[in-house]
Amino acid sequence: MEPLEVRFARCEALAAHGYIPQATTLALQLADYLIDHLQDLSDVEEARANIINVTGNGPDTAVDSTESLIIRSERFVDMFEKALYLAHILSTDQANHAGMFTFLLSVLQCPKFPMATKYLQVKLYYLEAEIVSLLQIVSVGSREIDQLRDAAVQISSTVACQIVPPIALAHFILDRLDYAYNMCEVDQNGHQNNRVLPNHQESRGPRDGDIALKAALDALGSRSLFSEEDYPQLSEAVRRQKGELAIALLTRLVLSLIIIT
Fold first, then answer.
1. Helix crossing, 206-221 with 232-260: angle to 10°?
2. Which of 240, 237, 231, 239 is nearest to 116 (CA)?
3. What beta strand segments (E) does 98-195 contain?
4. Minimal CA–CA distance to 87: which of 125, 134, 123?
5. pTM higher than 0.85, yes or no?
6. Long-range contacts: 100-104, Cβ < 8 Å, 24+?
7. pLDDT digit string, tens, across residues 94-140
8. Contact 91, 134 (CB under 8 A)
9. Diameter of the chain measured on Cα atoms
10. PANTHER family given for it (predicted)?
């Protein structure tokens, strides 16, 4: 077994037998290893795609690439699954929520590539949604806001050259960074609620709404750098994520118009 697998198995065993503090310590150590591993897999796939585009593929190369892609896809999804498991361990103690937030945000920021099979593609889509759900339980303070700002700027600067656009990340940033949406609430009748949320007051600024909006629009308008014919399941997943993001943007537009009127 690889060192990462051994450490992860040890972490699982500790958690299963109730040694949560020890499992949490090991989970924090494993987080950095997982991020590096995910990034390495993304870099390999990007380099492979560039080579194929430049040189083309003969039959032998195509077979080798397919087999290699299956292996890398399985490892990539496995790393996402491990990340989600570690995050569940960290979520048991609120003191570790800040570390969990940084870890999961980094996982979502790792460039993704088309998976080799429909099963792996659907599983990755599900794991990504579960990661976003865990991120939503974290109380967002000034530290997390700074991280979201950096992530939003990174999306705007890199989305055009990423194989798969980070739609889920852009949607989460919009939900947590948008100033007007988090500072003012509208009731079910559409009437403005002037109560300011105290936990968010010092963290966000009006400019954050512009940053979040730009990242969301850049992600929404990005072109996926893969063939829809070759990866129909991924195309459907991206369309669904873009549809959800578009609805979120339209909802904010309607709420802003209600507030103005």
1. 150
2. 231
3. 185-186, 192-193
4. 134
5. no
6. 100/134, 100/138, 101/135, 101/138, 101/144, 101/147, 102/147, 103/31, 103/35, 104/131, 104/134, 104/135
7. 999 999 999 999 999 998 889 989 999 999 999 999 999 999 999 88
8. yes
9. 65
10. ZINC FINGER SWIM DOMAIN CONTAINING PROTEIN 4, 5, 6, ZINC FINGER SWIM DOMAIN-CONTAINING PROTEIN 8
Closest CA relative to residue 42, chosen from 137, 106, 126, 119: 106
Q: Which residues contact 87 (CB under 8 A, 6 or more apart)?
A: 100, 103, 104, 131, 134
Pull the structure tokens for residue 29. Answer: 């150590």
Q: Tokens 């099979």 belong to which residue?
A: 117
List the structure tokens of 13: 């065993």
**φ, ψ for residue 112, nearest 5 deg:** -105, 160
Q: Per the structure block, which two tokens stand in for 113?
A: 């590539």
The residue-averaged pLDDT of 19-37 equals: 91
206-209: list long-range contacts, CB under 8 Å, 24+ apart: 206/179, 206/180, 207/179, 208/145, 208/149, 208/177, 208/178, 208/179, 209/177, 209/178, 209/179, 209/180, 209/181
Measure the CA–CA gap between 148 and 140, rounded to whole angstroms. Answer: 10
